[in-house]
Amino acid sequence: MNRNDLLIAVAKATGMKIKDTDKMIVMTFHQILLSLARHENVSIMGLGSFRVRKKKPRKARNPRTGETLSVGEKYGIIFRPSKLMKQYVNKSPKVETSTLSLARPRIELPAAPVRKTPALRDDPGAPKIDGEVLPDAVPDADRVRGDDDEKDGGDT
């Protein structure tokens, strides 16, 4: 699966427009990258965690010439998959692949007005898609995330 496949799959699953889905995916990856650039760990429930690790300076050898080189300290990113991801990949008998879900309990999101910050539009470093600066607020903030109404587990 590549980024385009992910985009189409998420758009179909959520019923969102492709353009809105693309913005959501780009901003999600952007926020993960910003956190890692600040050397913060990122944990995503059901997927795994990204950790930044400092690598010590070391001696290396050029295989072509045999010359010894000094490699300075640097940072690397380590991904550790969650237990659930390992079960998905290994198709554990405990996991029914036709009903796999990362659904969370129903959460009501507060309605928020859509703001377009002039400072963000003037910022040359602001994230953009097709030359358009991404909004700093979610336009559908009053949408409900989670399971369908029929699956709320209450008495009907």
Describe this structure in words.
- There is one protein chain.
- With 156 residues, the chain is an alpha+beta fold.
- The protein folds into three domains: 1-38; 43-95, IHF-like DNA-binding proteins (HU Protein, Chain A, Irregular), CATH 4.10.520; 105-151, no CATH class.
- The protein contains four helices and nine strands.
- The strands form four sheets. A three-stranded antiparallel sheet has the order 1-2-5.
- A hairpin with a 6-residue loop joins strand 3 (58-61) and strand 4.
- Helix 1 packs across helix 2.
- The longest helix is centred in the first third of the chain and has 20 residues, at 18-37.
- The chain is elongated.
- Residues 136-156 have low confidence and may be disordered.
Keywords, please?
alpha+beta; single chain; disordered C terminus; 156 residues; elongated; 22% strand; HU Protein, Chain A; three-stranded antiparallel sheet; two-stranded antiparallel sheet; 9 strands; 4 helices; 3 domains
Side by side, the strands of the main sheet go: 1-2-5
Q: Helix and strand string, N-terminal first?
A: HHEEEEEHEHEEE
Roughly how many Å is the radius of gyration? 21 Å
> Can you count the helices?
4
Distance between the termini: 40 Å
Query: Roughly what is the average pLDDT, rounded to an integer?
Result: 74
- Unreliable stretches: 136-156
As a percent range, the share of strand residues is 15-25%
Name of the CATH homologous superfamily of the largest domain: IHF-like DNA-binding proteins
The CATH topology name of the largest domain reads HU Protein, Chain A
Top CATH class of the largest domain: Few Secondary Structures
